[in-house]
């Protein structure tokens, strides 16, 4: 179960540091080239996701997540890494991206493209239900929880085949903006908005191009994060 290590404040934002053992991520300082945005598609707190991460051995996690109230939950330092992208070899091959090989301790050779992307990336989650379903005049999460219509982002032109998503809150977006600026200055990452390409799977992201991307830029089956206008506004301003 997730336990709180400490609560502190950064840039007037509440930060909750969770106890996250180093066998759940890789405590190796790696050179950072990219920031990738995700959303959790889960309940009303990061806790459920953290508990899920703690319950598996694959070292799947992001260094932090932003709650709907704008508070930040941290699992480990952004200078370290864990698996967050999950890109299969076939996705690299589809775009004719050269395979990069490494050798394990047992001498076995393996394709390391996905591993390298994760090592070089700072991954951040936004707590959100993600895609929603409309039934009558109401909107529901995938768990059938009814969503306040004021929290629903409607896309006339569907995004990844979906018209309805839970909105990222103003508080989340403000906290994200501060984090992006901090990471830009700390790691010298160019966070200039590349345009709508960051929301769709593309060769530039899979090839390891530096900068700001989303999970959907690496995987066609992922719709995190969605192109909410308020989110794009702060990305354009960065």
Description:
The protein is α/β, with parallel strands linked by helices and 238 residues long. 22% of the residues lie in helices and 26% in strands. The chain contains 6 helices and 14 strands. A hairpin with a 5-residue loop joins β10 (138-140) and β11 (146-147). α4 (170-187) runs parallel beside α6. The mean pLDDT is 96.
Strand content: 25-35%
Major β-sheet profile:
7 strands, mixed
Shape assignment? globular
The topology string of helices and strands comes to: EEEHEEHEEHEEEEEEHHEH
Given helix and strand content, the structural type is: alpha/beta
Mean pLDDT: 96
Q: How much helicity do the residues have?
A: 10-25%
SSE order and pairing:
Layout (H helix, E strand, L loop, with lengths): L3 E7 L2 E6 L15 E6 L7 H8 L9 E3 L5 E3 L14 H6 L6 E3 L5 E3 L1 H7 L1 E6 L6 E3 L2 E3 L5 E2 L4 E8 L2 E5 L3 H18 L15 H4 L4 E4 L14 H9 L1
Parallel strand pairs: 2-5, 3-8, 3-14, 4-8
Antiparallel strand pairs: 1-2, 4-5, 6-7, 9-10, 10-11, 12-13
Helix pairs in contact: 4-6
Provide a compact summary of the structure:
The chain is 22% helix and 26% strand.
Task: Please describe the structure with a list of short key phrases separated by commas or semicolons.
single chain; globular; alpha/beta; 26% strand; seven-stranded mixed sheet; 238 residues; three-stranded antiparallel sheet; 22% helix
């Amino acid at each position: 179960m997730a336990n709180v290590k400490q609560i502190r404040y950064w840039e007037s934002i509440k930060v909750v540091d969770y106890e996250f053992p180093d066998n759940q991520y890789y405590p190796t300082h790696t050179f950072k080239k990219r920031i990738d945005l995700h959303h959790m598609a889960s309940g009303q707190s990061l806790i459920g996701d953290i508990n899920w991460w703690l319950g598996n051995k694959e070292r799947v996690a992001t260094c932090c997540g932003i709650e709907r109230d704008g508070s930040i939950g941290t699992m480990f330092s952004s200078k370290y890494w864990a698996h967050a992208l999950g890109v299969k070899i076939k996705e690299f091959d589809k775009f004719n991206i050269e395979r990069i090989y490494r050798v394990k301790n047992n001498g076995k050779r393996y394709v390391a493209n996905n591993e390298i992307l994760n090592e070089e990336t700072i991954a951040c989650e936004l707590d959100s239900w993600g895609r929603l379903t409309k039934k009558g005049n109401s909107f529901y999460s995938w768990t059938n929880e009814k969503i306040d219509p004021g929290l629903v982002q409607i896309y006339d032109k569907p995004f990844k085949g979906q018209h309805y998503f839970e909105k990222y809150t103003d508080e989340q977006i403000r906290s994200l903006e501060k984090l992006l600026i901090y990471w830009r200055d700390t790691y010298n990452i160019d966070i200039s908005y590349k345009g709508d390409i960051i929301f769709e799977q593309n060769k530039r992201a899979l090839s390891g191009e530096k900068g700001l991307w989303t999970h959907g830029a690496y995987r066609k089956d992922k719709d995190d994060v969605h192109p909410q206008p308020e989110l794009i506004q702060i990305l354009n301003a960065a």
